[in-house]
Amino acid sequence: MSILSMCQWLQDTDIGTSIRESIWVFPIIEGTHVLALSISVGLLMVSDLRLMGYIMKRRPVSEVYEQIKPWMFTGFAIMTITGIFLFWCQAVKAYNSIFFKTKIVLLVVAALNAIAFERGIYRKVGQWDNALVPPTEARVAGWASLILWAAIITCGRTMAYTF
Amino acid sequence: MSALTPFFQWCDDTIISQAIRNSRVAFPIIENFHLFALTVLLGSLVVLCLRQFGLIYKAQPISEVARALRPWNLWGLAVMLVSGILLFLSEAMKCFGNTSFRVKMLFLFAALLFQFTVYSRIVKNEGASAPVGGKIAAGVALCLWFGVGLAGRAIGFLG
Asked: Which residues on chain B are in Cβ contact (under 8 Å) with A23?
């Protein structure tokens, strides 16, 4: 079974069909997906800006990052769930969209960037927690994260124009 | 509303409106910036409200968190307004008959009014914890701004 036929099967399921053909459910899921950007990427932005040395410089990096983390993950959980349902009901169009494919690749890169940060320079955060401007490796992780997420938002918005 | 028709028609006819309409990529590019700005504007508001609810950054006074977020919030708002005006110009007549657009404008004016007359003054004077009034103000600000976002998204869906 090819990926394309799996996509076809997925969007032909009862759930896929009923979301796609509903008057209210699709806009509600889509609207939630857009507004939850503020809780996911919006909060991530604050911790990225701290890593870049642009915001809350007098507060420890770990404080700014750790306290926002559970809320940020809540935001990303909402994004993931609504995103899965959006994909579910129009899987074939998504599969055929270069913007969707690019978005998925960028999401993986953003996740790898976050893992590399957590397992790399952040392990030694005790040494630079109070630095007004964190070390280069942390700043690069912050910049990479913001740029990747801007690109992910762009792909997400643009793919909808091509549907 | 008919008294406003000439104004909307004029907006629809400006050189900028026509240029955006005649370009295939202008509208999507502007709308992407509108979305980036939404993320920054609402994101910074959510952080401040979480602080007022006492859920994060308790070691920082509320006024300090507000001051740190203020430039980001204001830049987000500026980009939001400029990109929003451009999007509006390119389809002013479509917006004119659009109920969601009217609802959005009501929420927008209420949100701006509340933020600059009440909310920003309240957070400026709050210290270690927000009184009930401050928490209510945070809730109102959240509802108004998310109302703007929701009605904005509905413009394309509902009409």
From this structure: none
